[in-house]
Amino acid sequence: MKKIFLASVFIFLISVNSAFAASKEIVYNLGADPKTIDPALNRTVDGNNVIMNIFEGLFRTGFDDKPEPGCAENWEISEDGMTWTFHLRDNLKWSDGEKLTASHFRDGFLRSLNPETGSPYAYYAFFIKNGEAFYNGKANADEVGVSAPDDKTFVINLEYKNPLTMEYLAFPIFMPARTDIISKSEISWAAKPETLISNGAFKLENWVHGDGGEITLVKNPEYWDAENVKIDRLRFVMINDSNTALAAFKAGRIDYMNTIPSQMLPMLLKTGQAKSQPSLGTAFCDFNNSKPPFDDVRVRKAFSLAIDRRIIIDKILMGNQKPATGLVCDLVPGTTDEKDFRTEGGIFLPERADVKEAQRLLAEAGYPNGKGFPKVSYKYNSNSGNKAIAEALQGMWKKFLGVEVELLNEEWKVFIETRKNGDFEIARNAWIMDFFDAGSILETFMSDSPQNDSFYKNEKFDLAMKNASIEMDRVKRINYMHEAEKILMEDMTVAPIYFYSSASMQSKRVKNIYHSPRDFEIFRNAEIQE
Question: pLDDT for 300-347, tens place per residue?
């Protein structure tokens, strides 16, 4: 098996090296093979990084991370703030040359809200009139507050005002849709170049699945801003092993990567070969709150307190991450500009393991020194970094709690389904925020959220988050979210481990790739310097 893998990597390196003969091509290591690049169905960072480069909504993400005009050239908001009217640019087209109209936006919005689609982010559209009712089967499509009075005018009527409306409208579920194509193959349309018709800066040319495969994108000549797209081709290669990726980068066969071996990172950062920046992400352990023994809050707290977060940061990751003392990471706005959400919210967890309290809680739950504790496993998706953290957690739980935890690794696409289906006791998880807002991670734990992989249910938490979702006053809204985080951490629904820091390496031959703190990689402004 190892020989076969090395052979495939060798072939990959040859193919990438040959590709550099082509003009204006950039190669980026995406790392994993996305489960989907369907804007309505994707729930992963890797899939999102493809989608953000081939589709565009009414707004697009600017290079300051703020929404800027995309397909919509201008818009008006009614005096009461409940109606938004968008005017599309002239001559918008799909990548196959077909005219893009306001009806395509209506189709895209309704598809994401349709419960039959199963969009994991449908709740982002509940601010639209009857959006939630349609999703729950209590209204029909014609009652949803989206309309296209003519080809260039798109109107959204709101259920309630939302402070993130513009940010939401740049997110993938709000992309336009070609239902004439999608309706013929809901499952596979987004996997084939002939059916994945898009409207962004690039379009899909080819997709070879699996580790060592690649997604090839080419410049979309029909894009309204095509004259400012300076490269002809993007190759998103999929090298899961960080050491192999680093070797390919050093050989000049990859231009840009953020899958760096942790043991090499301190030296690469010190010499300036790698750069690091804070990221809006939190890594944590999912406890399955619906299954024994983790349906007991004392057990969840014991396992969380037995984690030495500082050791994981200093000895394993070594990339300027921070210990997660709460769920919401740094950089997220608080009630004022003087303090961020984390600073205001305070500390819920120690950096170092609180062994005494962890042991007390486990004994109180009926398992003194781990005696009688059932067999449990920790599941994670395969790569060397995740494996190292899994082994560290396993050792801490054994040493401090006397508990044996089996480690099970799975391929990425399988692991996503495992977690979603609740087939675990403890599972690796992480969340990169979609917006600069605490709700972006907190709302995933609401009882009815499709993202609630911990199967957590708490009516007080749900109420605090629902209040936050409709509150326009900044201070009141963020205080609702502080209340929600406190409830979540008192229940120790998950065990936060560390706050992300994103390290990357970029070839000197390229410039102007935009790396967002939200881990978006945007290439429409990228250039090649020969």
Answer: 999 999 999 999 999 999 989 999 999 999 999 999 988 999 999 999
CATH hierarchy code of domain 59-182: 3.90.76.10
| Contact yes or no for 155/169 (Cβ under 8 A) | no
Q: In terms of DSSP H, where are the helices of 44-177?
A: 45-54, 102-113, 131-135, 165-168
The verdict on whether omega for the bond into residue 293 sits within 30 degrees of 0, i.e. cis, is: yes
Residue 201 and residue 226 in contact, taking contact as beta carbons nearer than 8 Å? yes
Q: Rounded to an integer, what distance in angstroms lies between the CA atom of residue 274 and that of residue 327?
A: 27
Q: Which two tokens stand for residue 490?
A: 């008192």
- Residue 300 gets which letter from DSSP? H
Separation CA 332–CA 485 (nearest Å):
13
Strand partners, 504: 275
Compute φ and ψ for 361, nearest 5 degrees: -65, -40
In CATH, 277-502 is 3.40.50.2300: no
Buried b (16+ CB within 10 A) or exposed e, 233-246: bbbbbbbbbbebbb
Domain map (residue ranges) of the chain: 2-40+200-255+507-528, 59-182, 277-502
CATH class of 2-40+200-255+507-528: alpha beta
- At CB < 8 A and 24+ separation, what contacts does 363-369 make? 364/298, 365/293, 365/296, 365/298, 365/299, 365/302, 367/293, 367/299, 367/403, 369/401, 369/402
Q: How far apart are the first and last CA of the chain?
A: 39
- pTM of the predicted protein model: 0.88
pLDDT digits (tens, 9 = 90+) for 406-429: 999 999 889 999 999 999 999 999
